[in-house]
Design brief:
six-stranded antiparallel beta sheet; three-stranded antiparallel beta sheet
Length: 529
Amino acid sequence: MERDPRIAELRRAIVADPANAPPLRLRLGLALIAAERLVEAIAELEALTRDVPQSPSAWQALGAARRMADDVPRAGAAFDRVLALRPADPLARLSRAQVAADLGRPAVAFWREALAADPASGPARIALAAALAGDARAEEGEAMLRDRLAKEPAWTEGWTALASLIHRWHGPEAFAATARAMFDAGPRNPASMLAAIRLLARAGEHRQALAWVAEARARAGDSAPLQLAEAEALDESGHGAAAGAIFDGLAQLGEPTVELARIRQALRMGAPDRAAVIAEHMPDGAARTAAWPYLGTAWRLLDDPRWRMPDGAARTAAWPYLGTAWQLLDDPRWRWLEGDERLVGGYDIGLSASELAALAERLRALHSARHAPFEQSMRGGTQTEGWLLSREEPELRRLRAALTEAVAAHIAQLPPRDPRHPTLGQPRSRFRFVGSWSVRLVGGGHHVNHVHGEGWLSSACHIVVPSGNGGALTLGEPPRELGLDLPPVRAIRPVAGRVVLFPSTMWHGTTAFGAGERLTVAFDVRPLV
């Protein structure tokens, strides 16, 4: 029996009104995509394109579903059909450019075509700037974004993209100047100033963020999002009691974003019992909803006033904090959540020494930036752009095949299904890669403890490892800035040619190392349903 009322209503309407079936079937396909029921969506939309082969909208939706299902080549074929039917279609040109980037093909020309088809498209302009940077033309991409921002200073997505580009290519000082320019560009635009404050928070500049909160309040008045930003900055800069007073005032809103911040503040203040109560009373949905990234970065990434997080996603983001609270309280539910050794597994990916060396060279060539992205967990390294495991290079195709086997083996040995558990409650018959990238750390580099909120299972695949005992993968240790006396549950020495798989809700980081290089591939997977 269909449990989604929107989908049930569409199915009934299709039966009741056969004459209007094609547009209703398209809406059904889109509703299935929105529900992440991609297998059903693809089947429905493939049937629709057979019945109505001249419908650009049906082919566009099919391409989107296939790409979400991690079938990038066939997604590209669907977008090509749209362009054959409607050559100037802006969305199809944007989608085709994205597929070219996913596959690792030179994408600058495709993004230029997409922008020419829709000169007002912010996503096309941002993607073109990123592609230019990846082609060693970062200054050209920056100039293109600055030109648009000079005409449209309230374009917060553009400011965020520019700040990210500048940080990767020019470092923290240039980034700080860009964030300040963003703040000053919106003296009467609360959303722009708030987005600039969020940039600082994501970069760890919490004291400066507090000063900007005061400026924003003087210019545009107070608001709940501004109060939340202030409380978070106070909490992160060591003023937990003052932050708690603001959080308590915001709690009456019933916003999951506020509840997550309250959980974090309670843990930092040595009140795991209070943190557990808040987390346990958040709306459920961890086993059935797409998660948002760790530490509330979900709402910080929103560059508009829509700062509210879906309830289920908030509960999913709360799981690692809840596990930490249970561990501090010696609550047996912590062992239920993270204690089973089968949740973590290490697997040899079967690449020879020569294959690993060739893969390492391929990966190093993709690390074109000069600095770590400010919004990520690494310290002292670089990260690749795009979907690494969708690329066409033979070394990466071989890696994908090996990792697919490792993930399948890990899923097969997981403990029995438990519908209450955020990891064990998920369907297991099929899976899809939802993000993949490479990280290159050099001497002194490391990852701070974090989680991957968009995944079901996460990973660390070691390609090159430093000598000695440094660079270990640590699991189960909460972020150091919370000031909690909890060591890692497991510390795994990296071995070249092995991948470690673990729940995406589990804290993980790495230890620093001396000289050398730590080159890894990381990815998240989700069930394909």
